[in-house]
Amino acid sequence: MSNAGSDMEFVHYSVMADEVTNGLNIKEDGVYVDCTLGGCGHTKRILSRLGKSGSVIGIDLDGDAIANARAAVKDERLKLWKGNYKDIREAVRECGFGYVNGVLFDLGVSSYQIDNAERGFSYIKDAPLDMRMDQSGGITAADIINTYPAEKLERIFREYGEERFSRKIIARVIDRRQIKPVETTAELAKLITEACPGYYRKEGHPAKRCFQALRIEVNGELEGLGTALKEAIELLVPGGRIAVIAFHSLEDRIVKTTFHSLESPCTCPKDFPVCVCGKKPAIKIITKKALVSSDEENEKNSRSHSAKLRIAEKL
Length: 315
Fold this sequence. Notes:
Order of helices and strands: HEHEHEHEHHHHHHHEHEHE
Oligomer: single chain
Number of strands: 7
CATH topology of the largest domain: Rossmann fold
């Protein structure tokens, strides 16, 4: 496990930082939760708008992120909590609060995790096939590639990576692991590239979708996301806001569906003149259409291209 600040600076470009801080409608004395602390970019922005009585709870599974924040942000208004954002209730309670004024989810992997080769997230740099956000335990990408049955691997690549050549890729992986385990990112990227037709490379690196799928499976990124969003909204005070940045269609679909289910919960037949089910809206969606990063930001940070920001307000 690497240590933040030892051989590599913990850097994370904060996507749509202005849109997020403006969208959260920050109150000077408010309590805000950054569910995906990363390099503290968004947290620092929020802190800059808070008064002396305001607070930010920074949550991250990655011990490097927590260590970096502890060293880089000397501010008693920041409360750090190492763990999964799916346990947001526990984090807020343990930090001494009952309700909060705003919550941010910046989903996906941080720039630091991608750029730090030894973490095994990148198909560009050779490293052990790891991909764990929390390196204190759990299965690695190598465990999955070398032990999952072909049918399960294909489902993961097809559903989480939307990889249309998943069957051919898995066939090559299965053949290889019968001879020798697939242990590094370069080995896997080579197998994937060899299994895909040449023209596929014009759409980006052939391994991109499969690496995304493996990362999602390793870290259980989609499991419980909808529930975590609902629990975060329940923790908001009336008028409090939630902002969510998603980087691929699977995440964004969950966010969009969850928001719509809470804004329009009525289950009455459409031909009923009035609602009789009694289910009231819990939120008002602020962004009727997801916000995307500006051309200027995309030029500075290519990873902003796929980002979609959705914001809702507690009623």
